[in-house]
Each structure stands twice: as C-alpha cells, then as structure tokens.
Amino acid sequence: MSVGARLNDRLRDERGFTLIELVTVLGMLVIVMTALSYALIAASKTEEDMNRRFASQINARIALDQLRREIHCASTVTPTGASASITIVLGSRCPSAGAGTTVSWCTTGTGTRFALYRLVGSTCNETGKKAVDYLTSGTVFSFVPQSVTSLAVLSVTLPVNTRPASGLPAYQLTDDIVLRNSSRT
Asked: Residue 133, CB half-sphere, CA atoms under 13 Å: how many?
C-alpha cells in the first residue's frame, strides 16, 4: 500500500481520540487553568491592597489639611508634649466651627493598627468621625506651648501602613503647625 493510500485511509477513519489522548489533554488543561486562576487571584489581591494603601494615604492628607486649618485658627491646644489625643479650642475666625468650639482629635487602636478620630467636644473616642485608618503609631501629636521667642507649635506625624508585617516602610506625613492665635509671653 502506498503512502497516499494509507493517508487517505487514515483520514476516512472516524474512530476519534483515544482515552489516553483525552486524559492527557484534560490534565494539561487543568494545569493551565490552575496557573491562570492563581495569576488572576494574585492580581486581584494586589489591586485591593494598592487601593487600600492609596485610600489610607489620601485620607491622611485630607485629615492633616483639616487639622492644619483648625490649628491655625485655634486659641489653645492641650495637652503639651507627646500624646495620642489633643483638644483644640477654636478661635472666632475658624470657618469649620464657631468661636469657642472645642474639637478633639485622638488615636485609638492596639499593636500596629491605630485610627485617628475627630469629635466635637472635649473627649474623643471611636464614636467620632474616623479620619485616618492604618496608622502604625498611636502617639501622633507633640505640642510645644508658646514661649518668649516663638508661637505655639503642634507637630503631627501620621505613619500609614496597611500591612506593617510585610516589612514595607510606612508612608509618613509630618507637619509642624503653628498656632497663629497664640501670643508670645
């Protein structure tokens, strides 16, 4: 039998695939689909983590801007030194509240996850508006009262890290805010 005749016989044969061929193809398909699934899941988790980090950093910037506006028009801030909370008495020119309004900012949390809250009143806790989440330190304020040579200054440090166990460095916002309404003594 010639090669052409054997080829024609083989093309006319309608037996299909063997079981071994079918199982081999299915095995390869499972391997490819598993690898593809793992890649898609990893990409989804990475996007979720990136969005959480971005949102936390933006919230930290917004909170620092709001805190800066309130401190600039504040007449007093307590307590002095490093602390996890401050109480601000706003002056008459503050656009966010009326004269004499008391606003409190505080951090609450444990370990390496803290949140910064803002509450109108002299006490602050989790019932206030959450301004920032995923802070890695609870002591974010340091207040130095006015002196003969300088106005009062509030230093704010907001270290944000959504995954502190990963070893990645924290995104850190720092600012020294001067109380314009404080007077030199």
From this structure: 10
CA torsion sign for 26, 32, 34, 40 is negative
User: Which tokens hold the place of 137?
Assistant: 């330190």
| Dist. CA 135–CA 115, nearest whole Å | 6
Task: Give the predicted TM-score (pTM) of the model.
Answer: 0.76
Provide the CB-side half-sphere exposure for 92 (13 A, CA).
Answer: 0
Report the 10 Å Cβ neighbour count for 151. Answer: 15
Tens digit of pLDDT for each residue in 83-127?
Answer: 999 998 887 777 666 667 889 999 999 888 999 999 988 888 889
Residue type, 60: A
Read off the DSSP letter of residue 164.
G
User: Is residue 185 pLDDT above 60, yes or no?
Assistant: no
CA dihedral 128, 132, 138, 144 (to 10 degrees): -90
Q: What is the DSSP letter of 166?
A: G
